[in-house]
Amino acid sequence: MVNKHRGGRTIKAAETVFDIIETLQVEGPMQVTELADNVGKAPSTVHGHLTTLLQREYVVRQDGKYKLGLKFTKLGREIRFDLDVVSTAEPTLTALAEDTGEEAWLTIEENGASVPVMNKTVDRSVESVGMIGSYTDIHNSGAGKSVLAFLPEDQILDIIEKKGLPKSTEHTITDHEKLLAELAEIRENGYAVSDEERYEGVRSVFSPIIVGERVYGSIGVAGPANRLRDSLYQEEIPERVMEASNEIELRLRYPKFNQGES
């Protein structure tokens, strides 16, 4: 059976499978009956899908409850490393974390969201506030804004219209015109900052990774606001972050550079 969804035709059975997977991701381990209630399907239907997922090792059963299996981790890892920018950026990301003493992140944009794909830490880094592979609002972080600013104008407006500007903290930009003005400033400066806009007490500085017309993602650091301050936050780290993005751009543009060839 098919169902029309977002302008296309979809398979209802497949929709149910993804509803089950996404519910387990959000809610954690669940029994068949409570999972069925959550997805709005009969327990027998949900049990049938779970049996298939169990046989394919995408879910595991423990103490009478079902949860996602580690096979998803394997898939995610393979997809992540299939991205040119991830393998190319890793040494630069490591160096950035070591040089700044803060947690360094590599992010991409997907479906109008900011998605962390790699991070590197050092001993004194702030406890990680991000999660690899998570989809987060693009307008309230240095990572997201640094990418958003360099997307085509029609894509920027489309993302804002579809996603809105939800408020995460008292510092989040929720005004359309104010955000567009800041994006223009980011394009001029070459980097973006977040001053406690996503998480209270956390600041970040990110620079986009751009080759030709393609925005690959962004690289930057995040840390406690009481440590990222004054000239360190306003000058030193922005300069170091832009150096990092420029280095990755060079490696993406000239692959032989990765092998130490000139």
UniProtKB/TrEMBL annotation:
It comes from Halomarina salina. Residues 71-254 form the IclR-ED domain. InterPro entries: ArsR-like_HTH, GAF-like_dom_sf, HTH_MetabolicPath_Reg, Tscrpt_reg_IclR_C, Tscrpt_reg_IclR_N, WH-like_DNA-bd_sf, WH_DNA-bd_sf. CDD domains: HTH_ARSR (cd00090). Keywords: DNA-binding, Transcription, Transcription regulation. SMART domains: HTH_ICLR. Residues 11-70 form the HTH iclR-type domain. Transmembrane segments: none annotated. PANTHER family: HELIX-TURN-HELIX TRANSCRIPTIONAL REGULATOR, ICLR FAMILY, HTH-TYPE TRANSCRIPTIONAL REGULATOR RV1719. GO terms for biological process: regulation of DNA-templated transcription. GO terms for molecular function: DNA binding. This is IclR family transcriptional regulator. The keyword DNA-binding applies.
